[in-house]
């Protein structure tokens, strides 16, 4: 009697142990570089559509407050993998032995842009001469502004620079407290709706059109995580890549998912953001090198811009040491989405 | 006898605020102030109603939890600290400068470092709230205990009272009104502490929601959250008054 009960108990224990270990998913903490929004849709899509679950991953999202904050949290191991600006990574790498590496590119074009009202007379980057320009204090855009001005022959002292809280920039533009605002293309929709309030149209001038071409947002991983758990990192990237493609194939659904997980994000704004930034993800660079790839030459160009803007010796850092290409799934330059977008 | 009922004089502040609302509303319409500068009360109300109650309650609870827990932690640290400083002149001289240094360090500036030190989760937010609230508590408790009439201390000593009894039965009761004054300052600071922490690292909370709303230029919504925060501060302030009234009625000024 006792032995049969013990046997049953033993069998039950073994089965439950085996099943629980089989069901246990690998936990990954994903670091956002800012608050949730349409531009961060892929990670929410991957959670909701079960792309992560299919790779046996359980992903938790941690919100960030800028690239530097994100890099710090990744380096401290508070998060495993997440978004940050490549320029911030290279700057940090050049100055310290920060234990993080870029594994995949997300925005292979810089999202920095000038936002101005249509009647401001600013139609190209060189028109900012003599204008008041507002920017937030900690954006990485500020680092590249002097370079952009040099490229477009705008003398340094010809503009009036105003630093303000990111939330104040839109109101400052529409109230006429500034002529131009520096922000990211990911915020176009928000600025447009502000301009609509006063019945005006917004002009957006991306800096890549003014000669500033380099990688922007990349996925960065904590080195310990990447080296000790390469299998988890690889599975994460497979799911993430799939989610990127899904997001821009089904933007409406992706926006709904972001709103479902973070109800504070407006569905309509999320959709407009996803649609408006398609060109940062799918473009001629994606067609040439593949989705997510970090190309050696383009990386070298990105570093030369960063070095120049920060006043570093070019030899201070080999940008290749900031990259780990061993984890990205094989790049596909023949995907229909990549080609369709590049053709646009 | 002090009364804790709602008399006209107590309702006066609320009535003043209510009377301001129509003036605010009309001013916004007459001077055509755009909503991103100063939204009209009606617009703030609309923004408030547009957000589901379940979202409000999530954010409200997150902030309230951090504020109250941080405040209680601070209380648990500051009263013993005050006792130590009253008992030992040597420790008072060593600890006090440290406290002043901590107080004069802008917590907002070191908040990002605290997040890194304490890791993810609620602990950095509690630490920030605690740092912001504990100084008025320590100062008020120390001042209260030091203001005990010397003759009472002498008397207790001549009757052979132990140092613990001297603190518990004489100094602390004398300090109660002071401690409650400190608590009233600290409880409103605890909301500020929680919001500062949420601005630096949080996934929910009213401070996070204000930041979220302004980053999407939803100014009326940010105002709604701000008003919520003000109401929360008022309620917590009243709660401290209520605790004093219920348990330490004798300490209220006649």
UniProtKB/TrEMBL annotation, chain A:
<dbReference type="InterPro" id="IPR027939">
    <property type="entry name" value="NMT1/THI5"/>
</dbReference>
<dbReference type="Pfam" id="PF09084">
    <property type="entry name" value="NMT1"/>
</dbReference>
<dbReference type="InterPro" id="IPR015168">
    <property type="entry name" value="SsuA/THI5"/>
</dbReference>
<protein>
    <submittedName>
        <fullName>ABC transporter substrate-binding protein</fullName>
    </submittedName>
</protein>
<feature type="signal peptide">
    <location>
        <begin position="1"/>
        <end position="24"/>
    </location>
</feature>
<keyword id="KW-0732">Signal</keyword>
<feature type="domain" description="SsuA/THI5-like">
    <location>
        <begin position="41"/>
        <end position="254"/>
    </location>
</feature>
UniProtKB/TrEMBL annotation, chain B:
<keyword id="KW-0472">Membrane</keyword>
<feature type="transmembrane region" description="Helical">
    <location>
        <begin position="12"/>
        <end position="31"/>
    </location>
</feature>
<dbReference type="InterPro" id="IPR000515">
    <property type="entry name" value="MetI-like"/>
</dbReference>
<feature type="domain" description="ABC transmembrane type-1">
    <location>
        <begin position="60"/>
        <end position="244"/>
    </location>
</feature>
<feature type="transmembrane region" description="Helical">
    <location>
        <begin position="126"/>
        <end position="147"/>
    </location>
</feature>
<keyword id="KW-0812">Transmembrane</keyword>
<feature type="transmembrane region" description="Helical">
    <location>
        <begin position="222"/>
        <end position="248"/>
    </location>
</feature>
<keyword id="KW-0813">Transport</keyword>
<feature type="transmembrane region" description="Helical">
    <location>
        <begin position="185"/>
        <end position="202"/>
    </location>
</feature>
<dbReference type="Pfam" id="PF00528">
    <property type="entry name" value="BPD_transp_1"/>
</dbReference>
<protein>
    <submittedName>
        <fullName>ABC transporter permease</fullName>
    </submittedName>
</protein>
<comment type="similarity">
    <text>Belongs to the binding-protein-dependent transport system permease family.</text>
</comment>
<feature type="transmembrane region" description="Helical">
    <location>
        <begin position="62"/>
        <end position="86"/>
    </location>
</feature>
<keyword id="KW-1133">Transmembrane helix</keyword>
<feature type="transmembrane region" description="Helical">
    <location>
        <begin position="98"/>
        <end position="120"/>
    </location>
</feature>
<dbReference type="InterPro" id="IPR035906">
    <property type="entry name" value="MetI-like_sf"/>
</dbReference>
<keyword id="KW-1003">Cell membrane</keyword>
